[in-house]
Design goal:
Blueprint: E1 2-7, H1 11-22, E2 28-31, E3 44-45, E4 55-56, H2 57-70, E5 74-77, E6 80-84, E7 90-94, E8 98-107, E9 111-113, E10 129-130, H3 133-136, E11 144-148, H4 152-161, E12 167-171, H5 181-188, E13 193-196, E14 199-207, E15 210-218, E16 224-228, E17 231-234, E18 238-240, E19 271-273, H6 285-304
Parallel strand pairs: 1-2, 1-8, 2-5, 8-19, 10-17, 11-12, 11-17, 12-13
Antiparallel strand pairs: 3-4, 6-7, 7-8, 9-18, 14-15, 15-16
Helix pairs in contact: 1-2, 1-6, 4-5
The structure holds NADP nicotinamide-adenine-dinucleotide phosphate.
NADP nicotinamide-adenine-dinucleotide phosphate binds near residues 149 and 154.
């Protein structure tokens, strides 16, 4: 029986682990299939405070893990197949470890950026392919960039990337955009953005120095075309990793866990959520880490019995 089990080892989960371990709570942290989370798929991180010369994403995550271990956090690797949140202690079925029980749970399983699933895309993540303009835009100063997608994320990323890029080409598979009018207008008014609509991406080309072009199918003519580029930002949405909860916690219509505003409390007392699994807005390592700290403090308070959980009145 653990006082607290943390599921997920991105910046949110590891920060919660550091705080709980330092508070002598001996948390167990369950590492899933992508230990370290999304930062392990990026190269240099230049916007995490405290690293004036930047730090590589995997190194930052390894450091956070080491810091949690230093204070006695225990790690187990395995896929969480099932969680029973109906009564305390909560029960988890973890692949390779059987049944585990905990008085409190912190869910920090993150969200995964969606990829198109075309040849050359995943192989070139970190070599020109990115899913995060805020993280990687800076590396494309005075370069040509393609943004794929027709939703608000694609419009936002394209606009943001014009701060760095010499030219941004927005590629979308239909001739109609899904994005809200205001976001579309903003992108259309931006002279650095050009449009390739009704073109379905089919393959990413790369050379020894990284991405060189995106092959697209012109849906009108059926012909393949090549658009040369230095960078490819895939902005087709994110999927929060909440499937394993099987609807046992309240989520919004897109699957993100709903927390009581200004806290990390979910609708089940004793279960807390932090990081991207409950945040589709900011999605930054530093905001995830901050909410991980909040989850640990909320969890401690809950275990001390000093938390007055009044969720019903907040809805
Ligand atoms: P989204 O609205 O679901 O849009 C995803 C886009 O990617 C769609 O245009 C879709 O094309 C395209 N797409 C999906 N799969 C694809 C594939 N395999 N290959 C090529 N294209 C593909 O996702 P989002 O833009 O991330 O937005 C998610 C939510 O967050 C929305 O509610 C949005 O309003 C909100 N958001 C708001 C803001 C803001 O207000 N500042 C910023 C970002 C996001 P189709 O249109 O053809 O399906």
């Amino acid at each position: 029986m653990y006082k607290s089990i943390i599921i997920g080892t991105g910046p949110a989960g590891l920060t919660a682990a550091i705080y709980l371990a330092r508070a002598n709570m001996n948390p167990l942290i369950i590492e899933g299939p992508e230990p370290g989370g999304q930062l392990t798929t990026t190269t240099e991180v230049e916007n995490f405070p405290g690293f004036p010369d930047g730090i590589m994403g995997p190194e930052l995550m390894a450091n956070m893990r080491k810091q949690a271990e230093r204070f006695g956090a225990e790690f187990k690797t395995g896929w969480v197949n099932k969680v029973d949140t109906s009564k305390r202690p909560f029960t988890l079925q973890v692949e390779g470890h059987g049944e585990l029980q905990a008085e409190t749970l912190i869910i920090s399983t993150g969200a995964s950026a969606k990829y198109m699933g075309i040849p050359g895309e995943r192989d070139n993540v970190g070599r020109g392919v990115s899913t995060c303009a805020t993280c990687d835009g800076f590396f494309f100063r005075e370069k040509k960039i393609i943004v794929v997608g027709g939703g608000d994320s694609a419009m936002e990323e394209a606009n943001f990337l014009t701060r760095f890029a010499s030219e941004v080409v927005l590629v979308h598979r239909r001739d109609e955009l899904r994005a809200s009018k205001i976001m579309q207008d903003r992108a259309r008014e931006n002279p650095k953005i050009s449009w390739q609509l009704n073109k379905t991406p089919v393959e990413v080309d790369a050379g020894p120095l990284g991405v060189t072009a995106l092959k697209v199918r012109n849906n009108e003519t059926g012909e393949d075309e090549t658009i040369e580029t230095n960078g490819l930002f895939v902005a087709i949405g994110h999927t929060p990793n909440t499937k394993f909860l099987e609807g046992q916690l309240e989520t919004d219509e897109t699957g993100y866990i709903v927390v009581k505003p200004g806290t990390t409390e979910t609708n089940v007392p004793g279960i807390f959520a932090c990081g991207d699994v409950q945040d589709h807005k900011y999605r930054q390592a530093i905001t995830a880490a901050g909410s991980g700290c909040m989850a640990a403090l909320d969890c401690e308070k809950f275990l001390e019995g000093s938390m007055v959980h009044d969720w019903s009145q907040t809805l």
